[in-house]
Amino acid sequence: MFKKERTLFIRCLLCLSLITTLLVPITASLAVNEEVPQKSFFTLTIVCSPEFGETDIAEVWKPELKKIGIDLNIVTVEDVDTLVMENPTKSYEEGGWDIVIKGASPELGHPGAVIPYSILDRPFVPFVKDEDFWTMVDELAAASDETTLKKVSGEALSWWIDNLPIFDFLTDKRAVIFNPNVKNTDKYGLYFDYTLPMETVIKAGMYYEGKDTYTYAETEVWYLLPFFGWYTCGPGQFQRLLWMKPEDKTLVPELAESWEISPDGTVYTFHLKKDVVWSDEEPFTSADCKFTFDLMLNPTIGSEAGIFLRRVIDSMETPDELTFVIHTKKAVPFFLEWLARSCCPCIVPKHTLENIKPEDMANSDYATGAKACPTTGWYVLDQMVVGDYIRFKRNPLLHSSFTPVKNEYFILKKVGEKTTIVSMIKTGEVSGHYAGLGMSADAPALKGDPKVIVVDFSPNNWLKTLHLNPNHPILCNKYVRRALAYSFPANDVAKKVFSGYGEPAGGAPLSPSSEYWPTGLQTYTYDISKAKQMMEKAGYHYDLLKVEIPPTPYLEYGGFLIGGIIVGTLVGFAVARQRARKTP
Amino acid sequence: MAVAERWAIKTLLKDLITDPLAFFGFIVILIAFIVAIFAQIIMPYDPYNQLWEPLQPPSWTNIFGTDELGRDFLSRMILGTRDILFIGIVGSLGSTLIGVVIGAFSAYYSKYADYILMRTSDVIMVIPSFFLYLLIISTLRVRSVSLMVLMFTFTTWPRIARIVRSEVLSLKEREFVRAAKALGARDLRMIFRHILPNCMGNVIVVSTLGISTLILTAAGLDFLGFGDPTSVSWGTLLTKERKFIRVAPLLTIIPGFAIFLLALSFNVLGDRLRDILDPRLKGVGRRKKK
Amino acid sequence: MGLKRYIIIRVFQGILTAFLALVVIFFIIHIVPGDPVKMYFANAPFAKYDAEREAMWRAKLGLDKPIYIQFLMWLDRLFHGDFGTSMAIGGYGGLEVTTIIRQALLNTLKLWAISFAMILAVAIPTGVISAVHQYSKKDYMVRTGTIISWSIPWFWYGIIMIYIFAETLGWFPAGGVITLDPQSARFGQGTFGDTLWHLALPAIVIGTSSFGFLTRLVRSSMLDVLRQEYITTARAKGLAERIVIYKHALRNALLPVVTVIGLQVGAILSGHAITESVFGYPGMGWLMIEAASSRDYPLLMALCTMITSVIILSIIVTDILYAYLDPRIRY
Question: Cα–Cα–Cα angle for A200, A203, A207, nearest 5°?
Fold first, then answer.
């Protein structure tokens, strides 16, 4: 061959081999199937949101489901709630959902998460069509004394576990990390279950020694006015009528000195404390109480508490300045407890907020922090830099019956990165933050570190939930659902994904640590053999499953490379020949 | 073309062998490719199988240790090479192809088409690309590797199109082109055989450098949480392991360092190429040495 | 053609480009399936789903009307200076977008001012040295350094720096703009020193990962200039080498550098999003990420508009400057 043709041929060869080499990782990625393919009964798709370690939960569950013959396909979707809301009954293949993980659902506003209210407030439950279920819900709603309530809720829980439209699998156990200069941290865990950071710090008597400021870092954003919902700095800034001490569950007075309940349980009379003043020196009266509750009852405001209160409250009266009366539609056994624990019914000043139209309330200066709303509580808003921090100052006009706080300032700082928060605690910029349950892996790691204090919580009412689409062609079979529940490795998930900060909740929409948990209730534990039994009952027989040998992929890849070289050689030859013929 | 190009390749190869940095870069890329192609064979264990205790330090069984769910980290890193290379190379390749085609045709053909294409590329270049990625990912519901590649392709072709266009415009008026046209060469043949090869120098440099930019951007998007959490791409690994920096710092250091090495290698390569092709071959349009 | 005509044409082109860019962005946000109001309810932590409020938001955003009418409505509001209210920042939304952007912009500018000072202080002398001693070992080291600087993944770098310097050593704070409580502040709360102390780490991270580009630029520009004839003349005149380099060469070399920096304004404005988010620094980049993750449409549109217009403006200004300085460019 001529020299020119040889160069051409080599060039072609190199080019084609390079292209083939480039193509191989591409095709390999496209054709990838890393898992050992095993014939399975069916495939389910779990839809996770990309945060909070939810895909990790799915990944820990996947091999267990493989053992009982179900393939789990993990998919992340930006906003899971919208997907479910828009396609409530469709399976994933039809554009809906099969299984969904929902983030931790605190039942803070509802003491003990009594079932009817926690059920009805969940967005997924309306898709349950069982008549039995709704009868039970009605019964629960009608229960007017503690005993009946506990008995019926026990029955409802049993039914729930048996029929399992959706299930809750993990109960929260958390830890908090503090800077060593923070004092009185031992009660934190107990108090935090009841309320939010600012109030916990105040009521537990915590303070940062040697500094004027207590800084609390949080990854979420906080809202200023309490009646909207629970994610607010309401408690601590504002006060409730009464409060429940977590150590012994006794009700202690806050803004109400004493109270009475009528014998039939429908009239609640509160006698308010004398000489309580707002931080702008206006007197506190019962008119403020009525105004606050009116706000919560108003649907335009969109208060979370409103959903519950509209079911319960009939009317309210203010016979005189220091008396406030609530009439309920029927006897609600835990109404006082709710008033004492929920973050919403903190009293706000009528004289400041009465002139704002309800639809403008969320945009008002008081809600956005441009102006400080007067309070009766321990801290008043000092400064708010949106998206960055909220600073509160000690209220000098706090009523004498309350213990004042030791730190002059309380700062709620928003920090987006959880790992940065821990760094800040170590350096002292931030006083404390709660870790555990997927929020941070740091609590176990920091246990021996002298620069931080780690306080562990015991299990509380927060739950992590898994929802199964009850209208799914396969999942509508309750034995399949039970099989899924038995296959869930709750302990493994707690250990691996949440660094040990969790306990199996067993499939009921109520934490086993709740006071409404009936004794001796059977729940789901991780048991693969039982899961298999359930699958058999559902009609899936294991002798029909066969294991396939996975193909060896590297033969294809090697083939590509060799093939490319051969083709390159041939083409090079052909082109060289062509050129040779052309040259004169 | 033959002489200049051959000299360029010779110099490149010589550089690659003699210059320590270039050699290092070349070796890294070669290793990355081999690892990506033969990942299935090289992996010691199944990257998705949770066989061990979580967060173990490196040992003889798990050379990089285990991640938080008890999976072998080395296997995950090996498999992740594929994703990273895929995004970088295919993204760059795609944008180069589109850019070259659009740039060449827009320069060669009618003024009208040229104007429209250039306006389009203006619009795309003006929108901050990172912002665009955030927008697209947050408005669409699903996250995947292919989406990222598509996005990168569509935001980076204008740069290449501009380079090609300006080169083609200047070459169009050269004598050899006019001569070929007078001899009756068809348009397409003109572009592909005569003009394009002379522009490729710059284009190759830009697209090689583009690979490393894409790798870094993809890792960055993964890091912010906009990537696919189920994938084993190095960026996702970095994000997931970041929480454990105090327990197992190695798990955070390794993926980041790997990304750094890979981006470095492509950058070195592109840099060398630029040195060779740019100042010394300014007259690369000539067919024969004078 | 005259300079005036060139300016007019460029400005017109710029406006056209801006308009098209806005159309593209608007359509990306609005035409993709995904109801912004539903997403708002899904994302705001306690905005419980409520039919009445959904209707209110729909009317406010004009979602019941077809796309092009929405676009026109939005444009109309824009011309009246109304950038809308954020749907998610600050929690429940309700804050004026302009307020939010103003604060973030200020923060980003502070950060960039310091980073830039650092970068310039390093890049210019290094670039000059590298150009003057081209092909020497120094040049090689500088070139290697710049390539390394280009390739560092900033997020990884930031995390490691925080871990080493803030947490383990305690030299710098781990993030934020100013120290929030007076006692922690080493340099007094809110003072210049305090701000600098907080900005130090992010600035170092941004600086080390960006100085490569500038150094290269200075180097290549210096190389070009040093080849010019007037430099040889200056040398022939017998001027000291130092004067030749700094007084004559550098000044002329800096001009293209400045213009390129001008074109980087867009990049500056979008902030170094990842670095800002790692350090929890509430600047423009951080704002973008927040807006994108909470699907805050008014804020997203406003940010887009702002950044795009600034970029286009900077391009036009640069082009006009070029045309003014170099008459050959006007076509």
Answer: 80
Fold annotation for A38-172+460-544: D-Maltodextrin-Binding Protein; domain 2 (3.40.190)
Instruction: Give Cα B180 distance to the centre of its chain.
Output: 35
Contacts of B257 in chain C (CB under 8 A): 156
CA A561 – CA C185 distance, rounded (Å)? 63
Stretch C281-295: mean pLDDT, rounded? 80
The structure tokens listed for A168 are 């809750």
Q: Model ipTM?
A: 0.80
Instruction: Tell me: pLDDT of C331 over 60.
Output: no
Instruction: Decide if A299 and C182 are in contact by the 8 Å CB cutoff.
Output: no
Query: Is-contact B24 B265, C-beta < 8 A?
Result: yes
pLDDT tens, position by position, C181-192: 666 666 666 677
Is the pLDDT assigned to residue C84 strictly greater than 80?
no
Query: Cα(C270)–Cα(C311) distance, rounded to whole angstroms?
Result: 10
Mean pLDDT value across residues C309-331: 73
Q: What's the sign of the alpha-carbon dihedral B28, B34, B38, B44?
A: negative
pLDDT at A257: 92
The CATH H-level (homologous superfamily) assignment of domain A220-377 is Dipeptide-binding Protein; Domain 1 (3.90.76.10)
Say what the pLDDT of residue A577 is.
Answer: 67
Contact B260 C153 (CB under 8 A): yes
Tell me how many residue pairs between chain B and chain C have CB atoms under 8 A apart: 123
Chain C partners of A123 at a C-beta cutoff of 8 Å? 49
Q: Which parts of chain A have pLDDT scores under 50? A: 1, 29-36, 107-112
CB contact under 8 A, A367 and C179: no
- Amino acid identity of residue A93, one-letter, is E
Residue A328 vs residues A266, A316, A332, A346, B160: alpha-carbon distances, Å: 5, 9, 8, 19, 72
| Residue A184: both structure tokens together | 């009185």
Residue A381's φ and ψ, nearest 5 degrees, are -65, 130
- What whole-number distance in Å separates Cα of residue A485 and Cα of residue A506? 8
Give the burial string for C39-67 (b: 16+ CB within 10 Å, else e): bbbbbbbbbbebeebbeebeeebebeeee
Contact C160 B252 (CB under 8 A): yes
Partner-chain contact B142 A442, CB within 8 Å: no
The answer, yes or no, to whether residue C302 has pLDDT greater than 90, is no
Average pLDDT estimate for C144-153: 88
CA distance A182 to chain B (A): 22
Q: Pick B69's closest partner by Cβ from A28, A35, A56.
A: A56
Domains, in order of start, for chain C? 3-79 (no CATH), 100-293 (1.10.3720.10)
Kindly report, residue by residue over B271-287, the tens digit of the pLDDT.
Answer: 887 777 765 544 333 33
Name chain B contacts of C274, Cβ cutoff 8 Å. 220, 223-224
Nearest to A554 among B6, B40, B69 (CB): B40
B221/B259 Cα distance (integer angstroms):
13
Whole-number Å distance between alpha carbons of C326 and C307: 28
- As a whole number of angstroms, the distance between CA A321 and CA A323 comes to 6
pLDDT at C261 over 80: no
**Residues 6 or more apart in contact with residue C77 via CB below 8 angstroms:** C83, C84
Cβ separation of A368 and C278 shorter than 8 Å? Answer: no
Chain A residues whose beta carbon lies within 8 Å of the beta carbon of residue C50: 299, 302
Are C151 and B21 within 8 A, CB to CB? no
* Chain mean position to CA C155: 16
